[in-house]
Each structure stands twice: as structure tokens, then as C-alpha cells.
Amino acid sequence: MAKPLSEYNRKRDFNITAEPSGSAPAGKRKASALSFVIQKHDARNLHYDFRLELDGVLKSWAVPKGPSLDPSQKRLAVHVEDHPLSYGAFEGSIPAGQYGAGDVIVWDRGVWQPHDDPHKAYAAGKLKFTLVGEKLSGDWALVRTRLRASGDKQQWLLIKEKDTQARPAADYDIVEAEPKSVLSDASVGTSKVDKPKPKPKRRATAQKAAADLPEHFTPQLATLVDRAPEGDWLYEIKFDGYRMLTRIRDGEVRLFTRNGHDWTDRLPRQAKALQALKLKDSWLDGEVVSLNGEGLPDFQALQNAFDIGRSLDIVYYVFDAPFLAGQDMRHKPVEERRAALKSALAGSKSKLLRFSEAFTAHHQDIFESACDLALEGVIGKRRGSPYVSSRNADWIKLKCRLRQEFVIVGYTRPQGSRSGFGALLLAVNDDAGLVYAGRVGTGFDQASLASIHAQLKPLERTSSPLQKPLTSAQARGVHWVEPSLVGEVQFAEWTREGVVRQAAFVALRSDKPAAQIVHEQPRTAKSLKAQPAKKATSGVKITHPERVIDRQSGTQKQQLAQFYDSISEWILPFLRNRPVSLLRAPEGIEGEQFFQKHAERLAIPNITQLDPALDPGHARLMQIDNAQALVGAVQMGTVELHTWGATTDKIETPDLFVLDLDPDPALPWKTMLEAARLSLSVLDELGLDAFVKTSGGKGLHLVVPLARRDGWDTIKAFAKAIAQFMAQQLPERFTATSGPKNRVGKIFIDYLRNARGASTVAAYSVRARPGLPVSVPVSREELEHVRGAQQWTVANLQQRLQALKDDPWAGYANRQKISKKMWDKLGARPPQ
Known about the structure:
The protein is an alpha+beta fold. The strands form 9 sheets. Strands 1-2-3-4-9-8-7-6 form an 8-stranded antiparallel β-barrel. It is an enzyme of class 6 (ligase).
């Protein structure tokens, strides 16, 4: 008998393809729902790979036309070889010459629930099941026919059952209506899909040397400021080009955009020049530009060079080296990294590879000279600062004229003799969706008018993609388009209404996805005041500041302390006057973690130790009341902060309860949002205001503030009654019983956090998980736009906070009381 996945492995060379190698999991499978995934595959012929988890592998069918919600349309499904479970997360490009060469995206995923014994049904050729996915749901069937496809493969039919999710094909075609990935918003056949290149065969002696070099890398980004701040800064030209990162591993050079797309094939001469340096394992950071006759960057010329494939016209300016010659340089000061980089580039004879020099003149003179030369602006880098894979205040940008990217959401008809279009309608993203930002009608020549118009026509749609409708006057004559194109625009200012004035078009940008385009708001120079190299802004000394807390993001201990200090005004209201428990990871989150409820002998700077009478028989409970204590906790290795549901002055009468919606990990996020809506509806029916926050882990927390009246036992019993009520009403969705076996395919409503001594992660606390996600409050109106429990992280939370117009938890007040009527509605009684 063939081994599981032997056919899958036989067809692939894993030294070339980025697909995961196949091995069926050993040992007993953890309790979880059965997963399904549908991958859209642009191979020789576009098709959809339909995969169901069974016996530790993904049973797979190729569906040429994709699924249909119309029960009358029986879609051909050709049975193909089993795939490993890890394949369910694969997106990318299978290289030419390999089996199935072409782009792959995850079109849908979720869980499937067989109606009968799945092994017997599969063997009999008649599988009936329910899908719970991001796109597909309801009842389906896979039925084997007696026909055979090429290579003697079995032919099955994929059929939608008649239920409330079924829709006639004449009314709705789901594969046409929802073409993009549920993971990345990518579409097959576009540059949004990462295209992994062949993996070199590596010698055993080289494996250890490259072990610490990340496979992928996120660049440090600059913060827009209104004027140059005080302090000791290095200033460079702000190049008008594409950000480009270089990975050198085992002598192989790969060039990546800031979003991780491999552009090595588009920059062959630059790659050859880098290879000639003969550097050991490195990551280099820089920008590719095209220079005009005066030696100044010309973005339009750069785009033209890419369009016609003339990499000879492109110069790669390199300005930093987070990894160099096998050494992790991220913790070293910027001036030391740059000196080492300049030395490494000294041997290059190529005119296409240059070091980005810093200027020695006064910053104001540098900035004025840059503007006089019609440059975009300058970049400042704080001396002594480390390299951080996020946007922070150690790198700043000053622009000669306001200039940023916008999402193109529509266009107007041309007037007079003009062809193509009149103006482009612009938008930016905020937490609620796309927001109108004005229009641009200048800066185009005949060639760009024709080229852009040709790209807009296939994207036309009948409705506006904006979150709020325009006035009838603003929308008159507008052709709306799918918001996928990004254009760079320079302009005089933002008006009070949030639209640009005196705008001129620069160029389309293919290196930045539309979902990342926001209103860039400059910070004041005062907010960038230099900090001591080894202290957080609260003045607490941080020992071992360079220690990496999270390898995925590269965040160091010093940076985590500065992050907590920067959000202290947001998090302290949820910490003050409450016992706090700390999750400590002294060696980083990959190392051992400790959960600490009591002070014991640990001397945390500035923390408050509470009265021993609050928790008899134990060491003192702890409390964090100020920024110094918050940063002091980080100094002692803290990552997470958990709080009780009561304040220390009335510790026996809680002032809130929490319902933690904890899903089976296999469930799609759409299911979590539906569960939150249902739970909020029940709380509304009870007459209780509830407030939502992401957990920073897998689910959502519903926080219900209360007047300080009832004791712990009553509050816990009431939360349990809500959980049991929902599990009884919707047993296929919810469970009120803990344990992985009881949560398979369901969401556990965890009410156990409401006991005396239990705690919940605080709002705005970081979580000790890869990427350092944060537990973040959201308004009910925002809930539909939340993309996951880990949407906000240490790297991007500040961007959200700066963009907030209103407190998402406005109206939070501890005045609600649990009444007898509420107990009656739940069919429960309070404890005696």
C-alpha cells in the first residue's frame, strides 16, 4: 500500500517549488473541526482546487469552473492526489517546469461537517456535508460518477443542496462576484501574489550559518513630520523610487519590494552587481531609482524603465544593512550599520549600485536645497537608533510638497478635446472603510491618459466603493471602479473637509496595495524628542535593551518598553485600581513564559503592592497605576497584562463581567463575527450595554460594565447562564462547556474568567504571540470591518490610535444592574 502523500511528493521537487513538502501527521490528532480549503489555481487552465480534511490529509478535487450556489449546476470535480494539511495555507507561484506551474491563492477556507460517517461516504462515492467558510456555507454534496478523466482519474460532481444559501446562477455567480483571496486580498495572475523562486540546494555546512537569517524581512518605515526636530540626526535624500530589500543567502541574491514581492527577474543587472560583492548572508535595504539628465530621481522614468524591461536605466541606492556578512546588525546604531555597509560596497565597480550618502550641512539647509532641486524631500535618521521592522520616530521624512498615495475609486468623463478621462476620484482607508479624499485632473499626458483609462475600464462597477456616499453634485458623471489601483499625487494641502487641494498626478504605484493606503498625518517635531539610549520615556532604566522579544517582528525589549510608554494614556484607565497579573517572558516569547499574580520577591520598579488582606494566604497582589510601573513591568520581562473584574477598593463586588468568544481554530473569521453579533443581540435583549475588543489571540471579548452590587458567585453564575442559554438556542454554533473536544466546530463562550482571582487580558495589552498582536477595543460600527483577532500589533496600533475620531468605547459606565427579569429571560436563577 502506498504511503500517505507519496503521489504528492513524487510530483514535486521541493528544492524548486515553495509548496510545503508532504507528510501525514504522526500520532493522535488534536480535537478540532475538519478543515476545508478552496484554492484558485491559475495553471495551464484556471480552476479551483476543492480540498477536504480527512485522515490527516486534504482529499482533493480539481473543479474547472469553480463552485456554484445553483443546485441545478452540477460542477465537474476531478479527483486528484491527496495534499498535506499545511497546503491549506499555501499562496504563491509554482515555478515554470514544475507540476501545476502557476499562481495560487486561497479563495475560501473554513470547516466542513459530514452528515454521515465520512469514511464510508467517501468510499461509497457520495459525500454529503455542510460548509462553514468565509464565502461558501450551507449543505453540499460530492458524488462520484462512472466516468473517468485523463489518466484514469475519478470524475465527481460538486453540487449545492437546496437550502437558504442556494441562489440561481442567473442572479449570482459567486466565483465572479468574489474573485480574491480570503487571506491576502490577492488575485491570481497579478503582482499581489508572492512568487517564490527556486530554492537552492544547500550544503549541510551552510545550513547553520544561514539559520538566523530570516526568510522574509519587513523594512523600517519613516514617520512624516511637520518640521525637523531637535537632536542628532543623519539626513539623506528622499529618493523618488521603489523601496527594495536584498536577501543574500548562500551566495544567491534575491530582490524584494517592501511588501515581499520578488522582483529579482526585473532587476537582473542589479542582482549581478550585488552578487559580485561576494557577501555572506545579508539583508540590505535601499531604493531603486531612475536618474534624469541632471542626475536627479525621476519616478516616471523609473516606471518606463520597468515597463520596457531596461534595468540598465535603474540605479540601486543602498542605505542600511540590518543583516550584514552573517551578522545581525539590527541592534547596532544606525551610523555603525551604515559605516559597515559603505565599507562592504567599496569594492563595487558597478554604476548601478551606490551607497546613499548622508549630508553634513545643517538640516534646514539640506531640506531647502532638496526642495530647490525639485526633490521629494529628505529622510532623517536618529543617531544611535537600532533597526526596527516597523514605522517609528527614529526615521522621519520631511516632504517639500505634500505627496502621498491614494486609492483610485472612480473617474469622470473627459471634456473638450481631452481623451481617456477628466479626473480621478481619490480615497484613503480609515477604520470604517474608504473615505473620499478629492480628485486630481492634472499631471497627465496623452500616453498616461490612455494607459490609465485602459486599466480603469475593466474595473468599472455600478456602485460607489466609498464608506459614505458623495453628494449628488460630487457623484454626477462619475464612473465608479473597483478600489484596486493606487496612484501617487502631490498637492498643496488637506482641507478641513479632508480633501486634497491643488492636486497633480505623479504616477501609478504597483508596489503598494490599496488596503494599506491611509491619510498620512505629520507628527510634530516636539513629539519626536530624543530619548536616552537605554531608558524608556518614563525614565525607567531598561537593562538588556537589545534583547529580541519577538523574532517575527524583530521587536526588542527597549522598543516594547517604549511602545507601552507611548500608549500609557490608553491602557492605564484599564489598569488603575485593579489587581494585575503579569505574563512574563524574560528571554522572549519563544522562551519560557511565567504567569505571575503576586509580587512575591520580584522587585518591579514603581509597582504598587496591595494589602495582604485582599488575598489571604498569598503574597501581595500587584497594581499598576502609572507609566513608570507599566514600563517597570516590561523591564522585568512582562509582555501581557491581565486584570481582575473588580477594583481594589471593592474587591468582592465586581464592576464588570467578560464573555470570551473562543473559537475552534479551524473556524473562519466570518463565523466569529456572526457569533459576536448573536451574543450582542442577546445582551441587547437583556437590556445590557456591552463593549467589544479583539483578544489579540483567536477571538473577541465582550465586556459588560456593572454597578458594584453583586458578589463574585452571582456574577459568574449570570455569565454562565448567558453562555448556557446561547448554547441551548444554537447548539450547532456555541458551547458552554470547556475543553477542546467540546469546542470542535463551535465557539466556546468562556464565562470562567469571572471568578474571584481570575483575570482577562487588559484592553491595549500586548499578547505574547508571534508578531506581538494587541487586544484592542472596537466600536460596534467597526466590528464588521475587523479582519481578525490579531489585526493590530505593536507595529501598527499607533496608526489606528492617531486616526481615531471618537473613543470606540464611548459611553462605558459602571451603572448597570442585573435584575430578576434578566434571570427569568435566561431561564435561570441566581445562586442562593
